[in-house]
Design a protein that fits this description.
Rossmann fold; globular; 17 helices; 3 domains; six-stranded mixed sheet; disordered C terminus; single chain; alpha/beta
């Protein structure tokens, strides 16, 4: 890709970007949110048209008008959020749109045979008849990779592929990537996790503010230099943090049980205690009860059994408004679905749930006071662009997170419940989020942190609980804890006992 420029109105997403990838390598593409990575890859995959620039595949100049053109040229893309139909089988998903036929009928026997053949070539163990809804996240990702390969992909774009995986799952993915490149496939690896970039890539391109700032061999760079190139300043993720003395219990949950709409148990006898000045980390692979636990704590779901106390007040089964009135702030995982209204302005999003706050309401809303307060909040939290009238939907992930934090830290007087706070954020925004949480910890807040990012968990948490199939499998202080131990627990495997034999486990 040579001299690629793409604008959206007055916003320049890519400016004269050049991006070269060698055949048979893993080439990492890194940069902050808004740096232009996604736009560049959408141009390569035919989802956007460039305003200027040229694209060459195997030395031949090409025009890519749409994704069908990209697929014909051997380009495949695995999106961060999988594009699979849950009720379809693996085989049905893989051949969707390019179904083999016998006469005028769908030839499912051939589709299944194609799945088995491709799975064998890739070293996958996948059942063609398994329904996607019953497959693990790792298996679903492999199905997405197989979909692209089935359509003839030689160039594979992987968008943040490790964000949903356990540590073991990451290593399995890396083994798959190495196997594919050994077969001559080319992989473009989009990631903000610099240790992973250093581990798997041979070359890396860094974008900042829509421009190419570096194209380097991995052998000639390091994490610190890449972070500096991405952000334009020195960033130290996962550095040291101050020790704190835990205070009195603030949030206490006892023997919580919950069910989903189909009667399946989602929480099984869950108990926890969070103290003043403590970050209580809840680790686990997605869909193991973490979301249900947070919903119960926040009053979004009523437990079947058990009790919850916050600052000595029983709030079991109470409304979210009641829970928030106790000084509980909530930062959800899906900020655009549960915390930000896309069509509302930044000022309106900051005010959500605070319309009756005595500082803003004296029979009528005091818009002059609200505007002054909102302007101060976006300055304190470095929201970009710093305009109150900007729509929530136009904000990058990092800036949307800053708006949510600005509001919820105002609400919070005692407790903060935060889910996947760095999900989808760039390195600069992650650093900001971590510093804000550690500052509240220093001030004595009780913080519940739900995260599948083990580096984040091991850095921030004082206590770690691992959830598996709706239970807290194990809870322990965060002292000399290894990623390997956490990864095994997240897979449902307990540590061995002193004789080296596996302990009782709920492993599937």
């Amino acid at each position: 890709m040579l001299g690629v420029t793409k604008t959206f109105g007055s916003v320049v997403a890519n400016r004269d970007v050049s991006f070269r990838v060698r055949k048979g390598e893993v080439h990492a593409l890194v940069g902050e949110n808004g740096a232009g990575k996604s736009t560049l890859m959408k141009i390569l995959f035919g989802l956007y048209q460039p305003d200027a620039g040229e694209i060459y595949i195997h030395g031949q100049r090409v025009a890519i008008a749409n994704s069908a053109d990209a697929i014909k040229l051997g380009i495949g893309m695995v999106h961060q959020h999988f594009m699979l139909i849950p009720d379809f089988t693996v085989a049905e998903n893989m051949v969707l749109g390019v179904e083999p036929v016998a006469g005028k009928r769908l030839d499912m026997a051939k589709a299944k045979a194609d799945v088995r053949r491709l799975a064998k070539e890739c070293g996958f163990d996948i059942d063609p008849d398994a329904r996607i809804r019953d497959c693990s996240v790792g298996v679903q990702q492999r199905v997405e990779i197989m979909k692209a390969l089935y359509r003839g992909a030689d160039i594979l774009i992987l968008d943040e592929p490790t964000s949903v995986l356990t540590p073991d799952g990451v290593q399995e993915l890396f083994a798959i990537m190495r196997s594919l490149t050994a077969q001559g496939k080319t992989i473009i690896f989009i990631s903000h996790k610099l240790p992973e970039v250093m581990s798997i890539a041979q070359h890396v391109t860094v974008l900042r503010k829509g421009e190419t700032v570096a194209n380097l061999s991995i052998d000639e760079t390091n994490e610190e230099e890449l972070a500096l190139l991405m952000v334009g300043r020195k960033v130290e993720l996962y550095g040291s943090k101050d020790e704190v003395t835990l205070g009195k219990p603030i949030l206490e949950a006892r023997n919580l049980w919950a069910q989903d709409q189909f009667g399946n148990e989602t929480l099984k006898d869950v108990s926890l205690t969070v103290h003043e000045g403590e970050i209580y980390g809840i680790a686990g692979v997605a869909q193991n009860g973490q979301e249900e636990l947070v919903d119960v704590l926040m009053g979004l779901k009523t437990p079947m059994h058990g009790s919850i106390q916050i600052c000595g007040t029983d709030c079991t089964g109470k409304s979210p408004a009641f829970v928030r009135s106790l000084g509980v702030g909530y930062i959800p995982e899906d900020r655009y679905e549960r915390a930000i209204i896309r069509d509302a302005s930044v000022q309106e999003n900051l005010l959500l749930g605070l319309q009756r706050d005595k500082n803003f309401n004296e029979f009528f809303l005091r818009f002059d006071q609200i505007e002054k307060w909102a302007q101060k909040r976006i300055e304190d939290f470095s929201v970009q662009p710093p305009y109150l009238k900007t729509s929530g939907g136009s904000l990058s992930g990092g800036n949307a997170q800053r708006v949510v934090m600005a509001r919820e830290f105002y609400v919070s007087q005692k407790v903060i419940i935060v889910c996947q706070p760095s999900h989808g954020l760039d390195i600069g925004s992650i650093d900001f989020v971590h510093r804000q949480l550690l500052e509240r910890r220093r001030q004595g807040y009780a913080i519940v942190l739900v995260s599948s990012d083990l580096d984040e968990m091991l850095y921030l948490a004082d206590t770690i609980a691992v959830m598996y199939r709706g239970q807290i499998l194990e809870e322990f202080p965060n002292k000399n804890v290894s990623k390997k131990k956490l990864g095994l627990l997240m897979a449902g495997i307990r540590a061995t006992d002193q004789r080296g034999e596996p302990c009782a486990s709920t492993k599937a």
